[in-house]
């Protein structure tokens, strides 16, 4: 029992390591699933920044030498950092499969003793062997 538990833990570690690798999966592999994911990108964007522009006009104010102060809102181009949400299609192995190179390989919970794993938790036994894990002769 301890030996089987050790193998199960080892398989789990191997699978988690393989899932974290970022190799490109073969899109023709029928065991590759994909989904859309969003991610944020920092961009520099321009905008119209308002400011108070002071100017002078001729007027009837004799104390200011016939010059009056006026204000108007003007705009100048300024820049700021912003976040933009982008989307990308992400490929991953379908449930029950793990990544190996650029293919998705089926995962069998029990080791196929005298056979090979052909789909999730399904062993194809060598001639003369049977059972769920191909251990019965």
TrEMBL record:
- Give the residue range of the signal peptide: 1-24
Q: What domain of life?
A: Eukaryota
What protein am I looking at?
Multiple epidermal growth factor-like domains protein 11
Q: Which UniProt keywords apply?
A: Cell membrane, Disulfide bond, EGF-like domain, Glycoprotein, Membrane, Repeat, Signal, Transmembrane, Transmembrane helix
- List the PROSITE patterns hit by this protein, alphabetically: EGF_1, EGF_2, EMI
* Annotated membrane topology: Single-pass membrane protein
Residue ranges annotated for the EMI domain, each copy included: 29-106
This entry carries the following GO cellular component terms, namely: plasma membrane
Subcellular location(s) per record: Cell membrane; Membrane
Q: Fetch the Pfam families from UniProt.
A: EGF_PEAR1L, EMI
């Amino acid at each position: 029992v301890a030996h089987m538990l050790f193998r199960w833990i080892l398989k789990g570690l191997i699978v988690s390591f393989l899932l974290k690798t970022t190799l490109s999966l073969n899109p023709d592999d029928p065991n590759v699933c994909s989904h859309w994911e969003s991610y944020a990108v920092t961009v520099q964007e321009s905008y119209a920044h308002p400011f108070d522009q002071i100017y002078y006009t001729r007027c009837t104010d004799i104390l200011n030498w016939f010059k009056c102060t006026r204000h108007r809102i003007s705009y100048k181009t300024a820049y700021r950092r912003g976040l933009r949400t982008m989307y990308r299609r992400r490929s991953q192995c379908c449930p029950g499969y793990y990544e190996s190179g650029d293919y998705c390989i089926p995962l069998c919970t029990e080791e196929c003793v005298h056979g090979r794993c052909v789909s999730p938790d399904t062993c194809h036994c060598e001639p003369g062997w049977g059972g769920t894990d191909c251990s019965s002769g």
